Amino acid sequence: MDAAEPPDLWTRLKDRCNDTGTGCQALTIPHNSNISNGQMFTVDWASMPLEEQRTRAALQAEMDPLVEIMQAKGDSECRRGMWGVVGGEDEFCDFEKVRYIDGERPPDCEEGTGVGGLRGQGCQSRLDFVRYALIDGLAQEERLGVNPFQFGITASTDGHNGFPGDTDEFDYQGQNANVDSDLEKRLTTPAYAPHRLRNPGGLIGIWAEENSRDSLFDAMLRKETFGTSGVRIKARLFGGWDLPDLCSSGDMIADAYDTAVPMGGVLPEGGGSGAPSLFVSAIADLGTADHPGTPLQRIQIVKGWVGDDGLFHERIFDVAGDPDNGADVSRSTCQRSGDGATSLCATWTDPEFDPARSAVYYARVLENPSCRWNALQCAALPEAERPAACADPDQPWRIQERAWTSPIWYRASDP
User: 15 near 26, Cβ under 8 Å?
Assistant: First the structure.
């Protein structure tokens, strides 16, 4: 309420905390960009003198080290078919889209912005999504010498019931007290958008030296973080040059720290004999005896860059696991079937590397298909006690839970 624009907030935090010499530290995290109508990451300050733009970009880079990729109001990773984005179809961009009301997508803002996203109104921009903000950061860095969107990844719940971290699909109790306090209300209540399009939210994972406030905060500042869609997958990513097959190492994480940079970092200059290599590992959420976790299906590397045509380019590489493992889930019983893994690992080298072009890489870890919260809770009730909405064929019911690592950046040269 006191700071009308983000730079006002960042400047006050610096003046009152970071720059006081008292040891005070503050950071900010952009929140729920998928309903921002293009306003979250659009560079609306490009008309400033160039040096003022650099100062503005550097301020954001310092104060905004992380970005939220998933929460109860939907997924903010990516969306298919956006204006100015090329590189093929990514089927997993349809995940938990809270603004896909009755199957209808909001119109594309293209180069503009809109208003009313929280109410399901207005247009949707590619810059409502983290992947394309990361790519635009490369373009801004080439133009200004500073990347304002060099974000690490987090996820969160954003429920309003006082249950942070309560992200189990089978036990989802809604987010808005009496508005969605029972299954029927959660399936039928229109809250901003139909509540059935919401979900229990995500979780942040932090790789820190110890479970202390200082250590956790330092890990967030260096962006050694990941986000999940609410499951407790553990994921990490390292990048380097001429990496050995770290997956076969008896002490692979220690070796990775010795030979590579962890997620959130920039590949060192100088390179190696060829393309950069990424080491990625993931451990499944095993769940509990009463509610076992879902096995992992695959790990993907997502690469983004800006082409000579000015378009945003994206490529998805399957690097571990088996996308054709035959895994599935029954809608009526939520019984899962098919093979999967409790852990996955890969050391992958970019087969399309162009040393003259900056790029951003992050990992996405996918579980086998499972039932969404509404299908699980409907299946748990005797058929005669299920709300009528349980039989609605348009209710989304099947998901692939996931995790996203913070990125690693390759800089072609000093802009």
Answer: no
Cite the beta strand spans of 155-250 per DSSP E.
190-191, 193-194, 203-206, 225-228, 234-241
Domain count, the chain: 1
Question: Can you state the angle between helices 6-13 and 50-63, rounded to 10 degrees?
Answer: 60
Instruction: Show the domain range for 16.
Output: 6-410
Cα 35 to chain centroid distance, Å, stands at 15
Instruction: Kindly report the pTM of this predicted structure.
Output: 0.96
Q: Which of 44, 34, 50 is nearest to 7 (CA)?
A: 44
pLDDT per position as a tens digit, 336-378: 999 999 999 999 999 999 999 999 999 999 999 999 999 999 9
Specify burial of residue 118 (Cβ count, 10 A radius: 0-12, 13-18, 19+). Answer: middle
> Angle at the Cα of 146 (from 140 to 149), degrees rounded to 5?
65
State the distance between the two ends of the chain, measured CA to CA, in whole angstroms.
37
Residue 415 falls inside a structural domain:
no
Question: Do strands 66-68 and 152-154 pair parallel, antiparallel, or not at all (unpaired)?
Answer: parallel
pLDDT at residue 414, rounded to an integer? 52
* 46 phi, psi to nearest 5 deg: -70, -10
Return d(Cα 252, Cα 246) in angstroms, integer: 5
Residue 130 sits at the vertex; the CA angle it makes with 397 and 149, to the nearest 5 degrees, is 165
* 3-state secondary structure at position 261: strand
In a domain, 35, yes or no: yes
Q: What is the DSSP letter of 84?
A: T
Report helix, strand or coil for 233: coil
In a domain, 1, yes or no: no
96 in a structural domain: yes
Percent of the chain predicted with pLDDT > 90: 87
Residue range 314-325: mean pLDDT, rounded: 97
179-220: per-residue pLDDT in tens?
888 999 999 987 666 788 899 999 999 999 999 999 999 999
Look at residue 273 and tell me whether its pLDDT is greater than 80: no
- Cα distances (Å, whole numbers) of residue 371 to 32, 168, 181, 197, 295: 24, 11, 20, 14, 13
CA of residue 201 relative to chain centroid, distance: 12
**Phi-psi region at 167: left, alpha or beta (left = phi > 0; alpha = psi -120 to 50):** alpha
How far apart CA 222 and CA 230 sit, in angstroms, is: 23
Spatial separation of the C-alpha atoms in residues 94 and 383, rounded to whole Å: 30
For residue 75, the cross-strand partners are 70
